[in-house]
C-alpha cells in the first residue's frame, strides 16, 4: 500500500425532495449572488428547474442563468460563464445537471479567480494541473455517472483544438451536492446505460493498479462493481423504482470521490483513450468507455494475470478451475462485454460507424504533454494505436 | 434506503513517516499554541513522542502537555484539560494515541468553548448531544480501533457516577489525522485483538439495520468485515508486516467515519451493553464487545432472520443448504465466536470472572435517559438483562 492523503469535504445531501433545500445550503455556505448553470431543457421538463428557482427566491438569493452545457462540455461556454460571473458579481455557482454541467461549472469557478496573466486552458487543463482557488460551488445532480459531484476534477473539450482534457484541485470539490434519485427517473434508458458504464469504468480504473497489497480497497471496489452490475439492468427495466435508482446514485458518487483509490495508483488509460474518441466523434462518454475498456484489457492483461483472475472470479463469479488462468481472464472480459451489450451499449467502434482512419491521430494526441499513458502497463503511442485497432 | 447527509472533512494523512509532518499540519490549520494530549509511556518508548516534539519545535509551535489518559478515558482528566487550555491560551489540540486519548481530546476541545452556564457532562454526554463549536483538533493515531480519528463522537467515563456515555458533533471531527501503521508494531497482541474486535463491532453495528434496500452499503460493510477477519489474526502473527498493519489501520478508520451507515439506521445496543460493563468492571472495550455481541445476536436474530443468513453466507462463507435457515444463522454466530477466541479474546463474562450479580443494575443504567435501546430490535430493561444473562 502506498502512502496517501485522503480528503473529501463535499457534503452529500441525499434523498427524496432534497433539491428543495438548495437555497438554504447556499446561504449556509455564505453565497449571496448565484450563477445557475445547467444544460438543455430536461430540468425544465422534470420540474427540477422550478423547484430550484423557488428555493433561491425563498432564500432571497439573486441569480443569473447560463444554460446550454452539452455532453463533452465546451471550453467556449466556460469562457462565457467566467465573463458573466465577473460582470454580475457572482459569488456562488450552483450547477444543476450531470457531470458535464458540473465540470463546466468547475471550470468557471476556477476561471473567475485566475490572475490576468493566467490562461485556464493552456496553464491548467493542458497540464492536468488544478488552480489554487475557485468560487464556492454547489450541485444538484440529475444524472448519476461521472462522480463530479464530489470529485476534484473537471473534464472539458476545447472545440477549437479538438482536445478533451482534465484538471483537478481540492478547491474545485463542491461544497455540497444534492442527490435525489427521483429526479433521475426521467432519464432516457440509453443515458442510464452510459452513466452506469462510466461508474463501472471509474471503479475498474482504480482496480487495475500496479500497487500491491491493497486488499481492503480491492474488496471495496469489488463491492461497488457488483452493485453497478446488479442494479444497472434493473434501473433500465424499472425506471421509477426509488431503491434501485438510489443504489446507482450512491455508488456513482463513491466510485469517484477519492476513497477507493487510497493507497493505490489507478490506471486512467481507458478514460484517456475514450477522451480522444469523444473529442473527435462527439460520442457519449459512457458508450466510448464500453468500447475502449475491453480493448485495453485484452492488450494489457499479461502484465499481471493474477489481478485479472481476481477480477473474473470475485466480480464476475467465473469458476473455472484454477489451472485455466487465461480462460478465466478472457471469460471475465467477455462477461464485461456481455454486460455492456445487455445495457444496449456498443463494444466496438464499428457499431458507432467509426473506422480506423483517425486511430493514429488519436494515439498521437494522447501523448501530447505526457511521458506515458496508464500505470498498470505503461503505454506509448504505438500501444494506444494497437488498442484502438482492437476496439475497431 | 433512508435520506441522509454525509459529511466528513477529516484529512487523513496515511503512511510511513507521516507523523513527522504533525507540526506542519497544525500550522496549516492555523494553530499557534498546542495542547499535546496522550496516555502513558508507550509513545515515549516507541519514539513517536520524540518525533512529535521535534516536529512542533521545528515549526515554532509552543505547547503544553497533558498525559495520563487511560482506557475508558476519565471525565476528571477532561476537566483538568479544559482548565489547562484556558489558562495557557491553547488554540489547537494534538491527540497522540488511540481512541481513548482522542475521545478525551474531543471532550477538552468542546469543553473549552462552552458558555459559563453549560455543563459538559450533564448537558452533552448524558444526552448524546454534541456542542456547536470546539477547538480544532489533530490526531496521531497509534492504536487502530475506535475510528475516533475521523468520527464525530467522544466516549467518556464519569468515574464519580460510573456512567460511560458518548456525545457527537461535526465540530469534533479532527481537522487531520496522521496514521502510520509502523507505529502500531509495538502494540501488545491482546491490544491488537481488542482493537480488531472494536472495528468489527463498528461494522456489525451498521450491518444489523432495520432499514431495507441498502445493498451497496451492505456490500461495503461485508468487504470491510472480510478485511478485518482476514488480517486480524495475521496482524498478531506477523506484528511488523507493514502491509498487514496498513489493512487493519485503514479499515478501522473507514469503519467509523460515517460512510458505511449512510442511508441506514445502525444498532448500537452491543456497544451500549459493553459501555455499562466497562463502566463498572473497567475491562477493555474490545474484550467487552467480544462478550456482548454474540449474546445480543442470539437474542435478536429472529427479528429478521434473512439478514443473519446473509451475514453468515457472505461474511463467514457458511454454505449449508438454504432450507436450514436457523442452522446457517447459528453457524454464522459460532464462527464469529470462534474468530474472537482465536484472537485470544473472551466471549463470556465468566472468562473475565464477572458474575451475574450486577446484570440488573447495568440493565437499569442503560435505560437512563433512553426510551429504548437498539434499532434492529428495540430493547428495554428486561431485554438487556436477558442479553447479559446470555453472555454470562
UniProtKB/TrEMBL annotation, chains A, B:
Domain Alcohol dehydrogenase iron-type/glycerol dehydrogenase GldA: 9-181
GO molecular function: alcohol dehydrogenase (NADP+) activity; butanol dehydrogenase (NAD+) activity; metal ion binding; methylglyoxal reductase (NADPH) (acetol producing) activity
UniProt KW Oxidoreductase keyword: yes
PROSITE patterns per UniProt: ADH_IRON_2 (PS00060)
GO cellular component, one term: cytosol
Gene3D superfamilies, alphabetized: 3.40.50.1970, Dehydroquinate synthase-like - alpha domain
Transmembrane intervals: none
Keywords: Oxidoreductase
Pfam families in the cross-refs: ADH_Fe_C (PF25137), Fe-ADH (PF00465)
Domain Fe-containing alcohol dehydrogenase-like C-terminal: 194-388
InterPro entries: ADH_Fe/GldA, ADH_Fe_C, ADH_Fe_CS, BDH-like
Name of the featured protein: Uncharacterized protein
Source organism of the structure: Dielma fastidiosa
Amino acid at each position: 500500500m502506498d502512502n496517501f492523503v485522503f480528503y473529501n469535504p463535499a457534503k452529500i445531501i441525499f434523498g427524496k425532495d432534497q433539491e428543495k433545500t438548495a437555497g438554504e445550503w447556499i446561504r449556509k455556505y455564505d453565497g449571496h449572488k448565484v450563477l445557475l448553470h445547467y444544460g438543455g431543457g430536461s430540468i425544465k421538463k422534470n420540474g427540477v428547474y422550478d423547484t430550484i428557482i423557488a428555493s433561491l427566491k425563498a432564500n432571497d438569493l439573486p441569480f443569473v442563468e447560463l444554460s446550454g452545457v452539452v455532453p463533452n462540455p465546451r471550453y467556449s461556454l466556460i469562457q462565457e460563464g467566467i465573463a458573466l460571473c465577473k460582470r454580475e458579481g457572482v459569488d456562488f455557482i450552483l450547477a444543476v445537471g450531470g457531470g458535464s454541467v458540473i465540470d463546466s461549472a468547475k471550470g468557471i469557478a476556477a476561471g473567475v479567480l485566475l490572475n490576468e496573466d493566467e490562461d485556464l486552458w493552456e496553464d491548467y487543463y493542458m497540464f492536468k494541473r488544478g488552480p489554487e482557488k475557485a468560487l464556492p460551488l454547489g450541485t444538484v445532480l440529475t444524472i448519476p455517472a461521472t462522480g463530479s459531484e464530489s470529485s476534484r476534477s473537471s473534464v472539458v473539450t476545447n472545440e477549437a483544438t479538438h482536445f478533451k482534457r482534465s484538471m483537478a484541485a481540492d478547491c474545485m470539490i463542491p461544497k455540497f451536492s444534492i442527490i435525489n434519485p427521483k429526479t433521475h427517473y426521467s432519464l432516457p434508458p440509453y443515458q442510464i446505460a452510459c452513466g452506469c458504464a462510466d461508474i463501472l469504468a471509474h471503479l475498474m480504473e482504480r482496480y487495475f493498479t500496479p500497487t500491491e497489497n491493497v486488499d481492503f480497497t480491492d474488496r471495496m471496489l469489488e463491492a461497488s462493481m457488483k452493485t453497478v452490475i446488479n442494479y444497472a439492468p434493473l434501473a433500465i427495466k424499472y425506471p421509477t423504482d426509488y431503491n434501485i435508482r438510489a443504489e446507482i446514485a450512491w455508488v456513482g458518487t463513491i466510485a469517484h470521490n477519492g476513497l477507493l483509490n487510497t493507497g493505490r495508483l489507478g490506471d486512467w488509460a481507458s478514460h484517456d483513450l475514450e477522451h480522444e474518441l469523444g473529442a473527435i466523434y462527439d460520442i457519449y462518454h459512457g458508450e466510448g468507455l464500453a468500447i475502449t475498456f475491453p480493448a485495453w484489457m485484452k492488450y494489457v492483461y499479461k502484465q499481471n494475470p493474477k489481478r485479472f483472475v481476481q477480477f473474473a472470479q470475485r466480480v464476475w463469479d467465473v469458476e473455472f478451475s484454477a489451472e485455466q488462468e487465461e480462460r478465466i481472464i478472457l471469460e471475465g472480459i467477455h462477461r464485461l462485454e456481455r454486460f455492456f451489450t445487455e445495457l444496449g451499449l456498443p463494444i466496438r467502434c464499428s457499431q458507432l460507424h467509426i473506422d480506423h482512419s483517425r486511430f493514429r491521430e488519436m494515439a498521437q494526441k494522447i501523448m501530447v504533454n505526457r511521458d506515458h499513458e496508464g500505470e498498470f502497463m505503461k503505454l506509448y503511442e504505438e500501444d494506444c494505436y494497437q488498442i484502438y485497432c482492437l476496439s475497431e
